[in-house]
Request: fold
Amino acid sequence: MSAAEWARFEAIVAAGRYMTIATAGPDGTPWASPVWFASADAREFLWISKPGARHSRNLAARPRVAIAIFDSRQPPGTGAGVYIAADAGLVPDEALDDAVATYSRISQRAGAGPLARSDVEADAPHRMYRAVALERYVLSSRDERIAVG
Reply:
């Protein structure tokens, strides 16, 4: 991995607003879901979902996920994207304050409103999830995936 490839990976993640997270159900049936995400370090990816959503239920059975972040508005042959293999699940209670602060800060920079811990716990309809990267790849100009860590 070169410094340029890592910088490209970080830039794509920073510019992204939605990621597609691929999960598998208890029987292995795949499911892909676009979710709005926030990442402060291109290693941990945060999003909010309803616990009853199919991808959330899938995570409870199988926490290993695949993630793609890609700007689909790009002309054919010019794509810039990243691919991530990760372990995912609910943000643990002891990490929730930091995760909410990170998500809220990044969301507000993107034009969304603030988020509070009460928005993702107790009787709230949503919970905060995170994926921690195990493998990261950036798409090269020759349509090859290059490992970046």
User: Anything to note?
Assistant: The mean pLDDT is 93. Residues 5 and 148 are 7 Å apart (CA to CA). Helices lie at 3-15, 54-61, 96-109. The longest strand covers residues 127-139.
